[in-house]
Design brief:
eight-stranded mixed β-sheet, P-loop containing nucleoside triphosphate hydrolase protein, hydrolase, disordered N terminus, alpha/beta, binds adenosine-5'-triphosphate, single chain
Length: about 625
């Protein structure tokens, strides 16, 4: 007869067995022991089971808990009572405690990082097709240009010493070596002779490092102060590439362009175009080199006027974004063979408004392109964004982005609003003409011109509401010396190169310090010195004055007493005073950046406008 296993002990018993209490150990000795419970007690227990609320522990359990270690019991209860909500509250409390221990400056910095991260989540600067297909180029374009042997054999340490000599900062993989002479860059003789005739004999720092980078086919971000010769640095490579292509196989109707230079304003586009015409004409002045065709593509020019250029095949296009898109959509020419795209004043091009246009233009490219971005003021936000959008980019930086040109003597004067006009006349006596006067308001530009004309000063005016003809006339007569003074709104400040401006007068200080840097940068160009006089008064926002104060200090200029007394609230909080990542201003952080505010306003207006138009393009 097989012996059946002993019946499993009741639950209560099993619990007792696990208990460390000595009296239960006794029980262990007899597994079959069952305590006797009288029937009426059992009935009562059964009844209690149904009537006792679930939350109340049952008598058996109570009996056991009495025997559990009180510390364990306490921990157990705490664990059960701990809800997710409670945990969240605790985490919050810990964070609040940590926050309380942080200094105001640390909190401010964290806040700024968050804003920066939020605005950096922009779509990459690539064509719609590339974005949709996830096309990502990893190799730079190849070119046939090679530095001379003696340059190639230089060590990286020697290259670095050269860069230090010219205060050039570079960033990127395998940065091509700097080259100290145009001839060593293998620039054709006729062009060298032409440059020499214009007193351009040695490359400026942005050219001696930027040109080898661009000739090597690398994507590039070039940052250098106003008047430092950036135009030559991005035009020359395109001219050389076009020359090579034309020499190999001459272009016929419908072919080209080899590259495009994009400019944010018509004035800048025409100026760059004129430079290219000069340089390409100089090249073809000898029979040694072929003729290159360039096209100026901007609003205000009848498309028919350019028909003769299009009939021959185009090598170089200089354009403003709107008209370029228009011409591409009308298939006046294509970008099928285009491989070079440069943006001058790139921060403005990428900034709100132009960014979508740039992406639209990129979608017309059919193959990989070399992309170059140039500016005197390229804040960190744009640099970071641009770096993600380029292929193995090289950053070439001469001086801090947004720093003032050191060849400009900056004078800041406190002038009451009602005294400005009269004081302006006095100021005009400081130097011989030509002089530029800047004001941010179109009405004020007109008022100043009218006042000067009344006083017998030969003045022209330029602003956004003038017709293209009026703008061209103003620039032409001022450039030729027929007019002594030009009164201008912001349009003329970025990139325009007038010869020998002695004096810039800033009648009303712009809110954004970047604009101030561009405005004073119309003087002190190509190594010459100049003066900038700026009027400020109670109407100038304190933050703008603070930006100005730090800019003067950085440039080693005299800080007038009324600026010295303005205190930086961030300094009082013990914060570090680094430039605002959005506009580069030294006197404020991102959370109070005027440019960001403006950009947001414009974005909202554009959004509203889009809705009003039913979302049309
Ligand atoms: N290597 C050089 N040596 C002497 N002068 C030069 C040299 N390169 C350019 N220049 C001259 O310097 C002036 C300023 O050049 P450019 O307009 O290219 O400056 P920029 O850096 O583009 O300035 P901005 O930021 O204001 O647009 C021009 O008149 C140009 O002819």
């Amino acid at each position: 007869m097989s012996t059946s296993p002993p019946p499993s002990p009741p639950l209560v018993r099993r619990r007792r067995m696990r208990s460390p209490s000595p009296e239960y150990k006794l029980d262990d000795e007899d597994d079959s022991y069952e305590p006797y419970i009288p029937i009426d007690q059992r009935r009562q227990a059964k009844l209690a089971k149904f009537t006792t609320p679930a939350s109340k522990p049952r008598p058996v359990r109570e009996e056991r808990e009495e025997e559990v270690d009180p510390e364990t019991e306490e921990r157990e209860r705490a664990r059960k009572e701990r809800t997710l909500l409670r945990e969240a509250q605790e985490v919050q409390a810990r964070k609040a405690d940590e926050d309380a221990r942080k200094t105001e400056a640390q909190k401010h910095e964290e806040q700024e990082e968050k804003i920066l991260a939020a605005i950096s989540r922009q779509k990459k600067l690539a064509s719609g097709l590339e974005l949709a297909k996830g096309i990502q180029y990893t190799e730079s374009l190849r070119t046939s240009w090679r530095p001379p042997h003696f340059v190639r054999s230089r060590s990286e340490d020697e290259n670095q010493r050269l860069r230090e000599k010219y205060h050039i900062i570079v960033d990127g993989d395998d940065v091509p070596p700097p080259i100290e002479s145009f001839a060593d860059m293998k620039i054709p003789g006729p062009l060298l002779r032409h440059l020499k005739s214009k007193h351009i004999t040695e490359p400026t720092p942005i050219q001696l490092q930027g040109l080898p980078v661009a000739f090597s086919g690398r994507d590039m971000i070039g940052i250098a102060f106003t008047g430092s010769g950036k135009t030559l640095a991005f035009c020359l490579p395109l001219i050389m590439f076009a020359l090579e292509d034309e020499t190999r196989l001459p272009f016929v109707r419908g072919e080209g362009p080899v590259g495009i230079i994009l400019c944010p304003s018509r004035e800048l586009a025409s100026q760059t175009y004129e430079n290219i015409i000069q340089w390409t004409t100089a090249l073809s002045s000898t029979s040694e080199y072929p003729r290159l065709n360039s096209l100026l593509c901007m609003g205000g020019i009848a498309m028919g006027e350019q028909a003769h250029v299009l009939s021959k095949g185009v090598h170089i296009v200089v354009a403003t974004p709107g008209r370029l898109i228009d011409m591409l959509e009308k298939r006046k020419f294509s970008l099928d063979g285009c491989r070079y795209l440069c943006m001058d004043e790139a921060d403005r091009m990428i900034d709100l408004g132009f960014e979508d246009d740039v992406r639209n233009i990129m979608s017309f490219f059919k193959r990989q392109r070399q992309t170059l971005l140039f500016s005197a003021t390229m804040p960190r936000k744009i640099q970071d964004f641009a770096q993600q959008s380029l292929v193995r980019p090289v950053l070439v930086n001469v001086g801090r982005a947004g720093a003032a040109n050191l060849d400009v003597l900056q004078v800041v004067e406190y002038v009451k609003q009602e005294a400005k006009m009269v004081y302006l006349l006095e100021c005009l006596q400081k130097t011989a003409p030509p002089v530029i006067i800047f004001s941010d308001s179109k009405n004020e530009v007109d008022d100043i011109q009218e006042y000067l004309l009344l006083k017998g000063v030969e003045a022209v005016a330029i602003h956004g509401s003038k017709t293209q003809d009026e703008r061209q006339y103003a620039i032409k007569s001022f450039k030729s010396g027929a007019k002594d003074v030009m009164v201008a709104s912001g349009v003329a400040s970025k990139g325009l190169d007038f010869p020998d401006i002695q004096h810039v007068i800033i009648f009303s200080m712009p809110k954004e310090i970047e604009d101030y840097v561009h405005q004073i940068g119309r003087t002190g160009r190509s190594g010459r010195t100049g003066i900038a006089t700026t009027f400020v008064n109670v109407n100038t926002p304190e933050q703008t004055l603070l930006d100005l104060k730090y800019l003067l200090m950085e440039a080693g200029q005299k800080v007038p007493p009324f600026l010295q007394t303005i205190e930086d609230p961030r300094a009082a909080q013990g914060g570090t005073l680094k430039g605002c990542p959005v506009c580069g201003g030294l006197g404020h952080g991102i959370s109070s950046c005027p440019k960001l505010e403006d950009a947001q306003r414009r974005q909202m207006a554009a959004h509203r406008g889009g809705q009003d138009r039913g979302g049309g393009y």
